[in-house]
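User: Second chain of the day. Same drill as before.
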Amino acid sequence: MLATTPDGTQSALELAARLIDDTDAQLVVLVPRYPSARPGASDESDVDVYRALAARLGVQATVIGCVCRRLDDIVRQMLGRSSLIIVGGARRLWWPSREQRLADRLMTAGYPVLFSCRHTTSGTRTLAASALWPAIILTLLSVTGPVHAQENSSTPAPAAARADTAGATASPLADVLFGATLETFYEYDGNRPPDRVLPLRAYDTRANTFGIQQAAIVLELPADVADGRRFGARLDLQFGMATDTVQGSPANEPRPAAYRNLWQAYGTYIFPLRPRGLQVDVGKYASTLGYETNYAKDDQTFSRALLFDFLPFYNTGVRVTFPVNAHLSLVYMLSNGIQETEDFNNFKSSQFAAVLKPTGAITWVLNGYIGQEQRDNGRPGEPDGFFKVFDTYATIVPRPNLTLAIDVNHTSNQVIEGGARTSLDGAAAYVRYQATHATAAGLRYEHLADSGLFTGVRQTVQEATATLERRLSDGFLVRAEIRRDWSSSAFFPGPLGAADPRPFENTALVGCIWWFGNKQGAW
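Assistant: Same format as last time:
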């Protein structure tokens, strides 16, 4: 922990005490000593300060002084990557403090880090000059038997506790992540159209039938700078009902069959650009436009939103990500266009994005996209109008079991620059409540004002979905959904098909989602 004030140190000690309460974990406090800190100063002076602080708080800890030139050196030399590190200090929103920057570096290097801060008044007294840059790294070492922290110990920690993985050698294949998922469902459409096709749906495209919405396989080798591997790669293969809609449409792809089952395929390299590296991805990657994602297990609902079905699914090109700090990342993408694995004109499209995380409970993403999405047929003077998208969405987690989200979008298109323009303005709102570890409920509402860009006719379309989710085991969940789509015009086919249109569509489904593999978290 980097402690420039007593409050930062105290905050970290209090947090560590809560974490190890009623456990057999050992708390080790490493106090860096800098060779040029203060000529003639006692090596034990800073150690004694932190021993006294721990004793005053009633925290049992082994306090050790370590000579180093950089704080990061202590971590690499003394701790393995299974050690939990708590860093305490000041927290600032837009310009990270020294403590925050230390925590960011350690997390980038692959260490599990908790950051603890303590609100103080302007009159708080700082440490003396000799301790202006001391750091305490509070490490919870996992043990197999009861171990009690030793108070007032100035001897180094046992050698067994110093897991050093720097020299370990292993094949890159040992770090490959694998994941597989299967999404099956049965859906009933109250309009009972004769072809069983659900209009405006991209994933659950058929009703009144048992269906395989998606079966997918993911292989990923993440880049790991801390282990000396700056490169990585990812491959996603997709099969099932959704593939026919979202992959290889003849409207966008010159050779649709060539890439039909390739959802994502890109390579990664992280360049050593301060403060946290510059990541470059090259290949085919999922679009970041829209709040929802491709994999149902990571979404709130089984059926996808109208906005998700309307917005681009993927791009092929170069994606550059620059993490400014823990709160802000900037992204630029240069691609062939929307849903174009191969380009069908000579114009390359651009997308700019910013990902803001002002607090741990809020994530806000802003996207701007511009491109020419008309075929030029290999000749000059062909359509040159622009397709433009502004999309922004935010997620708020006011409580651990409650998630709120909103997505706002404006999209326009011109076939010929200066010609007629079609557009869509849409908004979606989400609420998800996690009642228990295994049970959750959610609501989604959408409002789309379409001049014909999405549905082909001028109309206002709305949609509401209620979802009940039950996780039966880790890797299997069931969702039940009731959904109503309605329009300002008679748009949805009835029992006689297009000749019998209705202004609404009511559906109900039960979906089952399986997933397995060593790839964790959202895919």
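The radius of gyration is 28 Å.

User: Great, on to the next one.
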